[in-house]
Write a structure and sequence with these properties.
six-stranded mixed beta sheet; four-stranded antiparallel beta sheet; disordered N terminus; 24% strand; 10 helices; globular; alpha/beta
């Protein structure tokens, strides 16, 4: 999967996400040190690694919530890092689900799901409500449209956040440790929604500590440490028989 940063070979040209020689500094601290990989259309790529390895920064660079210091990122063939790129237009193709749910606390679930549809997508209120209801049903929360976030469990809040992202009709979804803030008994409901999305062919890039999810659902597993990709491959193979000593050490602690 790793190729020369400037190689736009056929398998990468059709990629949903193509990251080429990505570097990111915060001051003098180089957090990403030449990341180079791609996510194929319809693939689920899981990114694992210790805290501070650069996983979340990588994810945030993909949709330009963080501006890369150097390197190039293509979204479905269009370069989102191009200085002349319409970042908002390209970002609209990418749904993002964060560790914290980021719901507006003063708005009902329905309002949380419709406000961006109307303001950003230009949908009518009726159309936005229809889309929102379909996505609430998809995540198993059709009955919660009038509830406020304070009355939801953590797992319900995260599923609402997923429904909100889906309501913008993205081409792909990014998940930044979506279950790490949840009580253990609530994790399964969120992972079940993500598994359903994967089975429907949604392109997904998932930063996660859920190794079972990576093994069951992932098409590719990326292990990061200290700002570089140490190892990647089929999740079942990497988790069962990691080649790199650093991967072996990490997995021995988390599996």
């Amino acid at each position: 999967m790793t190729t020369h940063p400037n190689d736009r070979s056929a398998d990468r040209a059709g990629a949903a996400i193509d990251v080429q020689d990505l570097h990111k500094y915060f001051g003098d601290n180089e957090v990403l040190k030449g990341i180079d990989f791609h996510v194929g259309q319809g693939q689920v790529v899981c990114v694992i690694g210790p805290s501070g390895s650069g996983k979340s920064t990588l994810l945030r660079c993909v949709n330009m919530l963080e501006t890369p210091t150097s390197g190039r990122i293509f979204v479905e063939g269009d370069e989102i890092t191009d200085p002349d790129a319409d970042v908002d237009k390209l970002r609209a193709r990418i749904g993002m689900v964060f560790q914290q749910f980021n719901l507006f606390p003063h708005m009902t679930v329905m309002r949380n799901l419709t406000i961006a549809q109307v303001k950003v997508k230009g949908r009518s209120k009726d159309e936005a409500v229809e889309v929102a209801r379909a996505n609430l049903a998809k995540v198993g929360l059709a009955e919660k449209e009038s509830a406020y976030p304070a009355h939801l469990s953590g797992g319900q809040s995260q599923r609402v956040a997923i429904a909100r992202a889906l309501s913008m009709s993205p081409d792909m979804m990014l998940f930044d440790e979506p279950t790490s803030a949840l009580d253990p008994e609530l994790v399964g409901d969120v992972l079940a929604v993500m598994k359903d999305l994967a089975s429907e062919g949604m392109t997904m890039m998932v930063v996660t500590h859920e190794m079972g999810f990576a093994r069951e659902v992932g098409d590719n597993l990326v292990f990061m440490d200290d700002g570089v990709i140490v190892e990647e491959g089929d999740p079942r193979e990497v988790l069962a028989d990691p080649r790199h000593e650093r991967t072996q050490s990490f997995l021995s602690k988390v599996l």
